[in-house]
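#struct-help
A.M.: can someone run this one for me? Single chain, 175 residues.
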Amino acid sequence: MRHGKKINHLGRTNTHRDAMLSNMAASLILSKRINTTVAKAKALRKYVEPLITKSKSDSTHSRRTVFSYLQNKEAVAELFREVATAVGERAGGYTRIIKTGNRLGDAAEMCMMELVDFNTLYVKETGAAAAKKAKTTRRGRAKKVEGAAETATAAPKAKKAKAEKSPEAEGDAAE
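D.P.: on it. Structure tokens below:
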């Protein structure tokens, strides 16, 4: 029975598992997105999120602590330079796991793991594009605004008035 055993050993020894998680964490930080199995991604999430939290305070002690986990100077520099500034106001949940189906060879459940703040597909729109979306209803029709409705009804009346005046104006000009 596995009562109270919270760590997923991933079928590896302790040193092999630590080295694998360290390499995967460095790859995730450097490339912002990796493809792996769901079990490894869940284990990696528990490994890398505390490191990202620690990177928010840029001190020598936190850099040395993170380096002891990652063993990669480039990954540590990237983590403290770019990733920490991007996730500065986020309280947690720095990674996202998106399931991509089963692997062909052994039917292992695969996923794509990415850093949340570095994916441009899920970023909220700002500016004119967001204003356009705010003006439509859930059915996709434009919302009726009181001022816009009045001007919309006034515009055809003005065109009709101009059309009626134009033949008279032509007649006056001819005389």
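A.M.: thanks! The beta strands are 33-37, 95-102, 109-115.
D.P.: also worth noting: The mean pLDDT is 84.
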